[in-house]
Amino acid sequence: MNEDLLTIAGKSYHSRLLVGSGKYRDLNETREATLAAEAEIVTVAIRRVNIGQDANAPNLLDVLPPNRFTILPNSAGCYNAQDAVYTLQMARELLDGHRLVKLEVLGDEKTLFPHMPETIKALDILVRDGFDVMVYCSDDPVQARILQEIGAVAVMPLASLIGSGMGILNPWNLGLIIEEATVPVLVDAGVGTASDAAIAMELGCDGVLMNTAIANARKPVLMAQAMKLAVQAGRAAYLAGRMPRRFAASPSSPLEGHIA
Hints:
With 260 residues, the chain is α/β, with parallel strands linked by helices. It has helices at 27-37, 81-94, 116-128, 141-150, 171-180, 194-203, 212-215, 220-240, and strands spanning 6-8, 11-13, 17-20, 41-45, 70-74, 100-103, 132-137, 154-157, 186-188, 207-210.
């Protein structure tokens, strides 16, 4: 699997586990967990995490430098297209013209479900403005297809509510999205433990993005290691191809030619 790379917007990565940078005890724990996960892409909520907006506050880039990690700015906390576009344009300025971003436009504060009409509007503006956009979206195959047609470089359907840890609630919809996808599909939101990540990868997802599942674990660094292994195992199982499901037992040893 050494050459089984994840390619997004023309750049290839060895790790299929993307991680967030919020909710940790401090920046040192953020760094330790990120290293334990062996993640190469780290998403950053521009409205909540300092990457240079405040010269007097600790800077995430001091512990996760852009020359080692791909920083993925996101528009978490935005509820309309205008705010999301402005936030990601600001991120581009802070990161010296960085093009790869994660678009999130939320529908309400209770569910944090994606607001798809506003998401589509923002995506169209960002693509025209030269961004490479990964998009947080509903697990709706039709919406995912529309995002790809507009120019998303990856679609990121939620497995369940952001931060809920409920796991993958609708594997059938994810399967439909994966089947039709022309760009990478990454599960975003809802992963709670290692088995959730493995299931996502076994379904054929190209990667998994998570934050709360690691940061809110009792031992975040150890959970980061578990998530790394789960993603790797799930990907290997997908590539290997699982055995067919049967409705009857099938002995592991052949019945013919056995010694009486």
